[in-house]
Amino acid sequence: MLDAADFLHPTSEWQRRYEALRASFVERLPARVVGERFGYAPGYVHLLRHLFRHGKIDFSEAPPSGRRSRVPPAVRTKIGAWRGQNLSAGEIAQLLSEEGTEISVRTVERVLAEEGFPKLPRRLRLKVGLTVKGASVPESSRAVTVADLDGQSFESAAAGVFLFAPFLSQLGILDVVRDAGLPGSQVIPASHYLVSFLALKLLGTERYAHVGDHAFDPGLGLFAGLNVLPKCTACSTYSYSVDAIHIHRLQAAFVKRAAKLGLYEGRVINLDFHTVPHYGDDSVLERHWAGARGKVMKGVLTLFAQDADSKLLLYTAADIQRSEADDQVTEFLTFWRRVRRGVAPTLVFDSRVTTYPKLSALNRAHVRFITLRRRGNSLLQRVDHLDGWTRIHIPHEKRNPNPEVHESTITLPHYDGAVRQVIVRGNGHEKPAFLISNDFESPVELLVGHYARRWRVENGIAEAVKFFHLNALSSPILTKVHFDVALTMIADTLYTMLARRLRGFEDCDAPKLFRHFVDGKGRIDIRGSRVEVTYPRRAHNPILRAVPWETLPRQISLPAGGELSLRFL
Predict the structure, then answer these.
(1) Distance of CA 510 to the CA centre of its chain
(2) Measured between alpha carbons, how far is 198 from 95 in angstroms, rounded to an integer?
(3) Which letter does DSSP use for residue 118 in this model?
(4) What string of pLDDT tens digits covers the 569 residues of the chain?
């Protein structure tokens, strides 16, 4: 005869858990008391409460009368097939529910036991592709080719990066990586890593920690020859493995190939320092002058060299100590003579770049330079008493085109020989500028014009800070900064190559090109060795359709290989 004892001392396990939870939630008994009443440890009572709150306890099993619901043979076949895919009973019940067959998890477990399937080993949420909070976990990166993806079609939120694929092929990026000897791993080769970093740069990704925003995009993965881009930790670890010699060889190989394409001549080169600020307290970084902020601050000192005619960056250096700053001009000259033999450049820089003894060394090496003289109050007082001022015209869109100049020949302390001095006033600044140069042959208009164009390197650095997020220093590891600025140089070149093909946008900067052309989704279809990227209707698609893509390499010289076809609706 059934009585109250059946509730106080249940025999079936499911009823015992039910009564234990009822006593805990309804009668509000402590876990110790509930455990003593129903034969559970207090910790297990807490676990039951947790599982119940999160909906992970199922009380829908059959009553203890022994009657069981009949499962049709077709459903049994589906359950067996899904278990063959290592799906859990809960996942199988969910799939059956989506098909309109309502079966409890307990019934699925019973069918699996009757069919002879063993229980699955306990899996962490990470094993089933979920984080603790239930978010999906992206796949691990691995190298793929176009042949591996034959027949697949997918959407990509960053399909605009494929606009740069023909230009990367022109530059022979795979050969550049090989010549640089960059390190790789057994899973991800060096070329795949480099193109992954470039993809993030071309998209204006602020920090490599934000690579998770693109972790599920197969299009970006295909661009880099991977199923998906490497994760943040992999990117950071790889940047640490790249030494200064690797970056030096990378720049040399890239500049050689860019010069063969006629991207720049290197007759006049602008040089300028830039301090990448660091705001952390625990770092060993030195304090350097930050011109954009007008103060000395902790950071990484970097050097940029820019071709004055094309405005392209062609050299970078980082990890520069204060004691090494004066030698950077000669370091660049050594690099330039190795990659562009026979091209004698005119170097243009301000007074902070080097010292008078180093200028003397440049003069002995027959290298022309244009720089500023360090002016003091005595020099400024003498300007008002000088005669022989001449007004000149400079074809310059950003400066006063008609300044006054005064020419003379002077000597400098610790400089062997004489230099040409040109004092410029009426150039839009309150104080006159004192230009000095060892070029005694060029017209004064050309001399002043060359220095007036030095603002281009400052604009190039400003663009690198604004779009390529050069100042997003996430770590005081200096090699990582140098790798980042080298990638900035390559990305800047790619945007310039794209701009030169876009009618009416030849002189636009990277942010505008990204906003109008690169930032957008697309559909990628892979058929055999052919990769077709289709872009939806956009306002600037006619300009992209007018680009003679047929004159550019169609065979993708990227890690994944294949033949690229771009369609603009």
Answers:
(1) 14
(2) 41
(3) P
(4) 455 666 666 767 777 888 888 888 888 899 998 888 888 888 888 988 888 888 777 665 544 444 556 788 888 888 888 888 878 888 888 888 888 888 888 888 888 888 778 888 766 555 555 554 444 555 677 888 888 888 888 898 888 899 999 999 999 888 999 999 998 888 888 998 999 888 888 887 655 555 666 777 888 888 888 888 887 778 778 888 888 899 999 999 999 999 888 888 788 888 888 887 776 665 667 777 776 667 777 778 888 888 888 888 888 888 888 888 888 888 888 888 888 877 788 898 888 888 888 899 898 988 899 988 888 888 888 887 888 888 888 876 655 678 888 888 988 888 888 999 988 887 777 888 888 899 898 898 888 888 888 777 777 777 766 666 665 554 433 447 888 888 888 998 999 999 999 998 888 888 889 889 988 889 999 988 889 999 999 888 999 999 988 888 877 767 777 888 899 98
List the one residue out of 443, 544, 559, 383 whose CA is nearest residue 533.
544
A 10 A CB-CB count for 461 gives: 23
Distance CA 78, CA 61 (A): 20
Report the C-alpha gap between 53 and 506 in whole angstroms. 61
What's the one-letter identity of residue 165? A
Q: How far is CA 316 from the centre of its chain?
A: 17
DSSP 7: H
Residues 6+ apart with CB under 8 A from 325: 273, 301, 353, 354
Alpha carbons 332 and 350: distance in angstroms, whole number:
15
Residue 20, Ramachandran bin (φ over 0: left; ψ between -120 and 50: alpha; else beta): alpha
Which positions ≥6 away from 399 have C-beta within 8 Å? 427, 428, 452, 455
Nearest alpha carbon to residue 427 among 455, 408, 387: 455
Which residues are paired to 301 by β-bridges? Answer: 275, 320
